[in-house]
């Protein structure tokens, strides 16, 4: 236990940074002498280096976490602030899934899950994760085994069944936070129901770790989480400027700390750095793309395996995604968090996640973003995997087009499984969509 | 001196179409061939033929569209949606809903009053709802395309076909034949099934009342009629429906 703990600490503080600078040096060597054509993108963000460092360290620490500290695997919408004071190292299978998506290894992982009987109709994050567990394969080197699985149904019901399968596989306890779907505003008895569960949940984790949850510590972490989401929201808001200082696609990548490290100082420090850089770019008129002619909104998760190609295709013609409902979700939820009432506000915030809200609410969010970011059009990604996010898009499209007079395209794909994306067909749709602006 | 001012090439998945037009947009000469995997060679051949027949100079601009568009050395490369809309507007001169049924995709385009693309929807991921659906099944029934109209039109009671997937529909049709269902009834059923697929695609967007049709499938009168019934309004077939995309491409560079 003590040796594991030392390894865990060293991984984050000594080996990690050393390894990263070695890798960076190797990459520089490889790049030397290579000529590059003109890029439709603005100069790359300097903060990316730091982002890579923060996230790599997180995954590197993870390799040595089991046996050193308690490990929890959690869904992206789980109130992780409750676990942090107990010293949990948290793993986000969805974020890890995205990493696998970017590396394009999902078909292989999914095949492994499908062979065991999980259907291809299941969300590709679930298939990626289950396949990765079965094969022991991950681009992160190694994922620590969980001592606890923590699942919140505010994003979908799939996570419940997925985490049950994980609980069965790892033979560890699963805690569930069930959040009733919100029509309009959440009703008092719904909030009470969620609050009761939080109380029960604390009992379970206290028993598991043998420690008591210290309310003061929770307040401190909630404060940091709120600050983190505020900073993230401000980073996003810089894209209201013309030209937007970064692309929505950049935003998808820079989202990682607020998802996985929410409530920690390193998360907030990172977003302060990013915000400074973005603010500076706005002042100097530096855009995320060189020639911003049209501004778009993106709805739903990104296509992790194809974001670069997609944004290049658009950037070459002067189109930029300046806002996305997905990245906005993390700024939006946090605004309800109140350190003066950590439990009550956590209940409110985590119940009002975009995916747990009805269509009129979603339409409101999209309307607001479209206006705030002065968009000319919107692309609604109909994600084969994420049914809760994709349902209702035909109506949303029609309403946005009619009420705001903007052009809207529905693009069929999948966020993680490239086999559900036909590049030829998809690019033709995007091409026609862009041509329709001229 | 040749009258040709522009050339349009529509390199589709099933057929390749090329037209040369005069300054008024009139088609001077056209070529339609089954698409060949060697796109560059085929278009070169079609272009040579067009130039020979119309006397068009090598400097006449070329607009390219269709799946193979990026492989063509053209002055302007545009998607089929933009070109079909332009071609349709040339014929109608006003806003309309255009249904283009081609070999591998079917598009419904809302053409605005100025000929612009206001919205569009396309079949996604599979060939259900496209010309290929009919082609595959007709081949299975050994019925040539030109006989369809007469045989199906004469049939009063269409046999119901429930599969929209081309492959499943094929096996469904085989079993229907085995059960002794008349081929004409099956054909009528196939058209109805295809029409309802396209109608739901059109239903996903607010369509204009004036519906026009283009693409190779528009030459099939039974299909036009079935689609009209599914949409609950008559459908006007554009002149030379198969050439509308190529015409649009030529008009863009005229
Ligand atoms: S992508 Fe959608 S379906 Fe999959 S886990 Fe996330 S919310 Fe659930």
List keywords for this structure.
heterodimer, A: 438 residues, alpha/beta, four-stranded parallel sheet, 18 helices, globular, B: 254 residues, Nucleotidyltransferase, domain 5, five-stranded mixed sheet, 20% strand, binds iron/sulfur cluster
Q: Work out the radius of gyration of chain B.
A: 19 Å
Distance between the termini of chain A: 65 Å
CATH superfamily of the domain at 6-87 and 243-253 in chain B: ATPase, nucleotide binding domain
Roughly how much helix do the residues of chain A carry, as a percent range?
Answer: 55-70%
What is the overall pLDDT average of chain B? 87
Q: How would you sum up the global shape of chain A? A: globular
Overall average residue pLDDT of chain A: 91
Principal-axis shape of chain B equals: globular
Give the helix proportion of chain B (percent range). 25-40%
Structural class of chain A: alpha/beta
Tell me the distance between the termini of chain B.
17 Å
Q: How large is the radius of gyration of chain A?
A: 21 Å
Percent of residues in β-strands of chain A: 5-15%
Number of strands of chain A: 8
Question: Major sheet of chain B: size, sense and barrel closure?
Answer: 5 strands, mixed
SS element count, helices of chain A: 18
**SSE series of chain B:** EEEHEEHEEEHHHHEHEH
How many helix segments of chain B?
Answer: 8
Report the top-level CATH class of the domain at 6-87 and 243-253 in chain B: Alpha Beta
Low confidence ranges of chain B: none
